[in-house]
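Sequence in, structure out. Go.
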Amino acid sequence: MENGAIRPKRCALHLDALALKDRLADPVVLQNTVRVVADIADMNIMNISVQNVGMEAATLERPARPWESGYSVQTLIVVKAALTSSHITIHSWPDWEFFMFDIVSCQTFDIQAVQNLLSDSLCIGKILEKYTN
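Output:
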């Protein structure tokens, strides 16, 4: 950035977590979760998409993260929402009861309220990694 330029403020939450398989395997639950997160964060969704990707399993050994060691899981569901202030994404690997969640915005939001909603909606069992800004 040039001297004197104002850097936009950013508010973000990233989670890697374990949750209930039946919640993570349901695209409607994931899409509704994104919609409620946007509502709690007082953000407007411009568009939302759901991709359900079938994949071939390469091994039976369970790595720490689904994409490690050349392993591919059988199902990946991705929900993406473009917001007027940025985006929300959920990448869900229901076979491993694992998901990644991101919300990034140029407006502030209540990070704890969003995390609580995710915990309730997806029945989070354990947070493996958390990043906030």
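Check: The chain has a mean pLDDT of 84. The beta strands are 11-18, 45-54, 75-83, 86-93, 98-105, 126-132.
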